[in-house]
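Page 47, continued from p. 46.
Same chain as before, 198 aa.
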Amino acid sequence: MLQTCPLCRAELPPGLDGLYDLGARTYKRVRGRVNRGELSWAALPAAQQVEMDEAAAVLTEAADQGHMLAQAWLAQMCEYGQGVARNLERAVVLYQKAAEQGHARSRRIAALGGMVEGRTSLYVAAWSGHLEVVRALVGAGGDKSMRTPYGTPLEIAQRMGHQGVAHFLSGAGAAAVTTGGMRAKGGGKKGKKNRGRR
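Result:
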């Protein structure tokens, strides 16, 4: 049975590679025009937005079925908001899936402390409360104590109320030193609580 595009119902090429090729070709064509200054991701004309919607749909279909390159391209689209709504949480999950299959750039981003919009993948997973992704990233060597401009993964998990993630990161030895020098656990600096009392 032939697959059809979920948006336009046109027949799709057979197999995951066919889906990937169709989506990637469309994405690269639109991206080329953006790179040449003919279009802008922030305000795509309706025709190009329809193309990108179709590209995202077929890449999603391939990515959901485990196609490594589709996962990596879709992650990049989500990271930068290229034809889709920016979604750092989804980007991290897709990068991790591609990394597990050996995709080199995704491995650098997911496991080696690479940044997604100024945040490490581990930070974004902690912010989102995805305990299984946090476990996978730490298991792959993600830096638990790397400080971003927004804090450490443990700090953000605590601020967002993701207690399971915070507990795991605490047990994994993650640093939670705030910019003021106080630790998130352990009661803070001596005398801080009683400052100003005589």
